[in-house]
């Protein structure tokens, strides 16, 4: 019955939401294929882990573009910026198709990060603009579930597609063109099938005004400063480990692309179930116990990854770490946003993008340098140390600003388990 009710809820969504989610599946499929193959391709053409880290690091810096996009939404409209972002991503992916020079691959990565940034700052608000009857949480969960599944399928396809004789013969780098074509198709669908944007003339010096308000809020609001610092610590740790997992599995444990794709698929699906169950667990355990438990699991699993050599044990702890880190990111994101005044949430979202841009760039570079010079065990040891720092900072500095929690049950649909609101 639950599944039938869920299908009934999905059927009630407006046509525009179904177009958004269907095209989201195409986009996630393409990016799932590309991101799975990307680092393996870099390794295939002989780039060192340090060079790979440099490419990712410089690309991450350009996610700062999102900090300046807000005022231009009024001029161009969200849909147009979203479609432009998809096309920029497609061009960036296309640069990986026929080139091996590091400088060109770096430029491609920069384009991918800029495009992804434009997508992230417009896609969700555009989806919300199509919802009716205050069903934002349902629409978000619908989109997010499809995104996770399609991304996992993309990785699965990428890992096994070389088993097809034609693709095995031409080399998997040529598969990047398939991802680029899918992104172009996604952009075309959204451009022509979604409603026309409502645009306005932006106020004079709105970019400067936005930056000035952000800086003033950062100076005056200690809570936002602490939240931003916690995000910085966590992101600098996660980004020094996660991008290199597939490379480690291939080079240090001798696994093939197909096996790695099965691991990626399993991790994604299990993470999705973890996110679905998380609100109910928080309701029973409370925020403090839940976050402490998840942090401890992530810390222990990261330490074990630095110690174990057995393939099966390594994969087990890798999956456990991936799920726990995903829960940390989602839980803290919901927790922080719910504890910030409504009028400051847009500012915090901008600061979060700014913080992530710098921290991910630093983490990517450190992770590549560590892997290249010290070996993979030190990557996970690095992640272990940063996780401990993040846990200590959370419980000594941030926790006192958090409210106790209840789960918001105001929405009666089956997706409500994803919508968390923290109250006194």
UniProtKB/TrEMBL annotation:
Domain Major facilitator superfamily (MFS) profile: 223-424
Segments crossing the lipid bilayer: 21-41, 47-69, 81-104, 110-132, 144-163, 175-193, 226-247, 259-278, 290-308, 314-332, 353-374, 380-398
Topological relation to the membrane, as annotated: Multi-pass membrane protein
Pfam entry (one): MFS_1
UniProtKB keywords: Cell membrane, Membrane, Transmembrane, Transmembrane helix, Transport
A GO CC term assigned to this protein in UniProt: plasma membrane
Primary subcellular site in the record, as a coarse category: membrane
Compartment annotation: Cell membrane
SUPFAM superfamilies: MFS general substrate transporter (SSF103473)
PROSITE patterns named in the record: MFS
Superkingdom as given in the UniProt entry: Bacteria
GO terms, molecular function: transmembrane transporter activity
PANTHER family: RESISTANCE PROTEIN MDTM, PUTATIVE-RELATED-RELATED
Record's protein name: MFS transporter
């Amino acid at each position: 019955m639950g599944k039938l009710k869920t299908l009934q809820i999905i059927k009630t969504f407006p046509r525009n939401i179904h177009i958004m989610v269907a095209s989201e599946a195409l986009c996630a499929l393409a990016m799932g294929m590309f991101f799975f193959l990307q680092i393996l391709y870099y390794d295939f053409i002989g780039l060192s882990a340090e060079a790979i880290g440099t490419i990712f690091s410089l690309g991450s810096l350009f996610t700062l573009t999102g900090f300046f996009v807000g005022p231009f939404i009024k001029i161009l409209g969200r849909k147009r910026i979203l479609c432009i972002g998809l096309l920029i991503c497609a061009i960036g992916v296309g640069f990986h198709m026929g080139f091996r020079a590091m400088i060109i691959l770096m430029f491609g990565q920069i384009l991918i990060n800029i495009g992804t940034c434009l997508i992230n700052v417009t896609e969700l608000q555009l989806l919300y603009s199509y919802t009716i009857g205050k069903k934002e949480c349902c629409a978000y969960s619908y989109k997010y579930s499809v995104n996770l599944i399609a991304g996992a399928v993309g990785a699965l396809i990428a890992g096994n597609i070389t088993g097809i004789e034609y693709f095995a013969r031409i080399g998997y780098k040529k598969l990047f063109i398939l991802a680029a074509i899918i992104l172009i198709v996604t952009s075309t669908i959204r451009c022509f099938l979604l409603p026309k944007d409502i645009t306005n003339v932006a106020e004079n010096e709105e970019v400067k005004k936005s930056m000035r308000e952000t800086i003033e809020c950062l100076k005056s609001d200690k809570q936002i400063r602490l939240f931003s610092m916690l995000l910085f610590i966590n992101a600098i740790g996660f980004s020094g480990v996660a991008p290199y997992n597939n490379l480690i599995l291939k080079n240090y444990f001798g696994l093939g692309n197909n096996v790695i794709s099965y691991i990626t698929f399993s991790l994604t699906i299990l993470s999705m179930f973890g996110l679905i169950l998380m609100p109910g667990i928080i309701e029973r355990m409370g925020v403090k116990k839940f976050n402490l438990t998840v942090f401890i699991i992530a810390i222990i699993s990261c330490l074990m990854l630095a110690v174990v050599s057995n393939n099966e044990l390594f994969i087990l702890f890798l999956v456990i770490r991936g799920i726990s880190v995903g829960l940390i990111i989602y839980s803290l994101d919901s927790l922080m946003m719910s504890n910030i005044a409504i009028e400051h949430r847009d500012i915090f979202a901008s600061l979060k993008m700014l913080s992530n841009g710098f921290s991910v760039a630093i983490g990517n570079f450190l992770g590549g340098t560590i892997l290249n010079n010290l070996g993979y065990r030190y990557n996970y040891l690095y992640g272990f140390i940063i996780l401990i720092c993040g846990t200590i900072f959370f419980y000594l500095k941030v926790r006192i600003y958090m409210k106790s929690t209840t789960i918001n049950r105001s929405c009666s649909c089956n997706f409500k388990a994803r919508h968390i609101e923290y109250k006194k």
